[in-house]
Fold this protein.
Amino acid sequence: MTYIAKPRLHHPTLAANKLGYTRRDYEGKISTLCAGCGHDSISAAIIQACWELDLEPHRVAKLSGIGCSSKTPDYFLGNSHGFNSVHGRMPSVLTGANLANRDLIYLGVSGDGDSASIGIGQFAHVMRRGVNMVYLVENNGVYGLTKGQFSATADQGSQSKRGVVNSDAPVDLVALALQLGATFVARSFSGDKAQLVPLIKAAIVHPGAAFIDVISPCVAFNNHAGSTKSYEYVRGHNEPVNRIDFDYWPKREEITVDYPAGEVISVTQHDGSVLRLRKLAPDYDPHNRITAMNYVQEHQAKGEVVTGLLYVDPDPEDLHRHLNTFDAPFNTLGAKDLCPGAAALEKINAALR
Amino acid sequence: MKPTDIRDPSYFHKVVDCQWACPAHTPVPEYIRLIAQGRYDDAYMVNWYSNVFPGVLGRTCDRPCEPACRRGRVEDGQSKEPVAICRLKRVAADNKSDIRARLPKAAKQKNGKRIALIGAGPASLTVARDLAPLGYHLVVYDQDPQGGGMMRTQIPKFRLPESVLDEEVAYITDLGLELRLGQRVDSLKAVLAEGYDAVFVGCGAPRGRDLDIPGRAQAAAHIHIGIDWLSSVSFGHIDSIGKRVIVLGGGNTAMDCCRSSKRLGGEDVKVIVRSGYEEMKASPWEKEDATHEGIPILNFLVPKAFIHDNGRLTGMSFEKVKAEYDAKGRRRLLPTGEPDQHFECDDVLVAIGQENAFPWIERDLGIEFDQWGMPKVDEVTMASTLRGVFFGGDAAFGPKNIIWAVAHGHEAAISIDQLCNGEDIRTRPAPMVNLVSQKMGIHEWSYDNEVSLDQRFKVPWNDVRVTLKNIKLEVEKGFDAATAFKEAQRCLNCDAQTVFSASLCIECDACVDICPMDCITFTANAEEDELRQRLNAPALNSAQDLYVSTTLKTGRIMAKDEDVCLHCGLCAERCPTGAWDMQKFFLEMTHAGPSCRDKHAAPGRKAA
Ligand SMILES: Cc1cc2nc3c(=O)[nH]c(=O)nc-3n(C[C@H](O)[C@H](O)[C@H](O)COP(=O)(O)OP(=O)(O)OC[C@H]3O[C@@H](n4cnc5c(N)ncnc54)[C@H](O)[C@@H]3O)c2cc1C
Ligand SMILES: Cc1ncc(C[n+]2csc(CCOP(=O)(O)OP(=O)(O)O)c2C)c(N)n1
Ligand code: SF4
Ligand code: SF4
Ligand code: SF4
Ligand SMILES: [Mg+2]
């Protein structure tokens, strides 16, 4: 916890984006999390991604549940909309908000406790429904806010700070998201911004349910030997399948370098932007949901942490398409549009008699 | 890059930009914090040990520290203004209580060594202050009746009240010196014949440059050499001037001449300069002060002739020029071809430069002079080519300023002390340094780490209608305590150093994320030039160092750009392992005395 506000002064070369904002303009209040918490690095990555995408802060809504991770929306995008919901209930609030105003960019921030324990039902349904959002779990394997109890993502056999061994099988949120129909699934590490920032950018641009599982060490309760969510363990077992080359992203015409065949996968997105994925695992195909699930599970069994863009559907459908809703956001419709009047009601009723 | 060796005292010294730039290396942030705490006596003493004349310098210093101040690099927007370091010094001097009990005493026991000091300006007085408490018998010669040198004879009283100077000169003369005031030295040979153990020449640069153009001889009665005129004013020999005055020259002497004229009857006073406004030698604040008093400064006019009516000065003519730069960037002043300009006047003050003159030093004593008539002086030891004869202040390398004279004085005193103890004067003493953690609680530091966003505060002036009527009335009023506090809070505490321990770092990035200035990067090592380009924010100011760690667990290094660090301590607050710590670096120059002798020598400091 830091008591002074971060000084407004900044580096003399700090650049402005197309909107005239600097990266610092996307910051929020000073973090109250423990010094060294991975969650703070993820906040910094979100700030960087939004700045690079030239997002207008008033077009973003950040929603969260309860936990250290769920506190973080206070520490970035200080000029955006925010909703701090109850424990595990962020997905339904986000779904409602998205239905009411489809024009905003939805950023759901949650923890492994918030999403894999109390909120696992909500997590499952928001993925199934294909809500257009970025759903980011800051995964530290513990309930940080309540002093470090194992969460449902803690690996079987991993040890708590006091040496207690976790005997329960873990929930793998990546596997769940793949199985439940998320159209963009990635995993990353809070300590690797070069990988994480482009993933967040790609997830924001993705017009469907985008899920990112970010391993985010809890320095206070889960950063010891015997933990599989520590800085050292993740660094030692990180197996990236690919990297988004953000130099050549997002517009097609900016692609100038030719890679040798087989080294790069280009994913043309719905809006015409192109994701350039540099392959790190030669045979990995991010277009195939089934092989992705197998790959992740196989490596998980070996104790490895597979990271990168694991699956992407270039032409996803979302909740609004499923429901065939009106193009304009509901919250812009007036009483007249929403209430067709007594005569129309009479007509509908008559048709049902 | 090689890992930074923070044990080298100059590494963190450079980070304290102001202290590094100060010729006497005054511990600036230390005294500014003391002022903020209202500890004016302590703040004064920190200054007094380093720069000898805090009250004088707090009003008159050339302040090389201020252009160096970090604040000037990190402030936002248009105004990038340094901390008012100089005027804060004055606050300490003005608000202190009687500190005489804390000053060194005259030595009870003399050491039998006799030293002659020629001139009683700041250079000689500094030598005296450093040596007198050690038991040296010091004989001070000056042609003037009082000590102080040009601080007394040149700097006008409206910038430096006599009482302030008297007090600080007395702190030194009370140390039991033998004063031979009112005695001009006409022969160094004669002084040497008195058998001194060492002689220090601190006679300044006493000669004002003249302007040999038509009419100079004929109109001489109303043409005055600036520094001669100022000293006559100072001694009360001159108390009036004509109504219309032209001051020639663009340096600080010209500014003192014009402002003094305004107070002695000059109504239409103007400064006329060959060069452009920006290239004028005068400090920006001196020009500002003259302008504030309604004195116009006319530029790009080269004096052509003094116009007179049978010996009675009536005006001057000038050629209009413009500046042109050749391929090498050298400036030349070329006539514009416009007709000459003529200005009427009753008096002219010539303030176009100051020169050294050593007519009283015989050239066969073994003291070598160069082709320009300057003595050959070692820049570190201040020694001349004659063993036992030292130079300092304006006499050594031409006209500079008070703080350089003080710095030279300290170094010469060390040399004299070493010489008299049979030691090698080329082995210079190391400074005294100390590096201590400032951590007091989990997130609490012994210094106020919040960064003030206030802009520089202006020192209030007395009403110009009043100050122009009385040449002895000080123009500036000095900061009041409340403003001084706020100005002191602008100081970034650059001596609170960010100290990195590679073995503790877990590479969590917390410091990188929090740093408001993007100073910190974890990256693969490279040569300095390449590394500077690929940090999180490019480190383009090569005058400021990169702080580079040993290799970390991931094979990367930590590289911190010292250039724009705010010393806000947030990196240390956000570090989970204490790999960053804020540690106060205190450096004090070693002065003459037992601790400056050989066995304490710094390996790095050796004179040529
Ligand atoms: C108009 C003017 C304004 C200035 N304003 C400032 C200012 O605001 N801030 C600043 O930092 N600097 C200022 N300076 C410069 C500063 O005064 C000098 O750099 C400084 O005083 C030099 O100190 P010193 O000890 O070398 O010699 P000086 O101060 O020049 O002292 C030399 C002394 O030696 C005496 N002396 C010389 N020859 C002999 C001899 N043969 N026998 C006996 N005595 C002798 C002289 O009478 C004099 O008292 C100013 C200079 C001038 C001319
Ligand atoms: C309904 C409800 N049940 C339990 C809690 C107590 N609680 C607060 S935070 C938390 C777990 C948070 O864990 P996670 O989402 O992993 O966040 P972290 O702190 O690890 O980032 C729990 C169980 C609560 N606040 N509300
Ligand atoms: S308890 Fe753990 S998760 Fe919570 S702020 Fe501290 S380090 Fe982060
Ligand atoms: S003290 Fe630390 S956080 Fe503050 S500016 Fe300097 S490096 Fe950055
Ligand atoms: S905050 Fe501390 S442990 Fe983390 S990267 Fe910085 S120095 Fe290393
Ligand atoms: Mg958690």
The pocket of thiamine diphosphate (ligand 2) is lined by residues A 66-69, 87, 111-114, 118, 138, 140, 142-146, 151 (CB under 6 Å). The longest strand of chain A covers residues 305-312. Residues 247-257 of chain A have pLDDT under 50 and may be disordered.
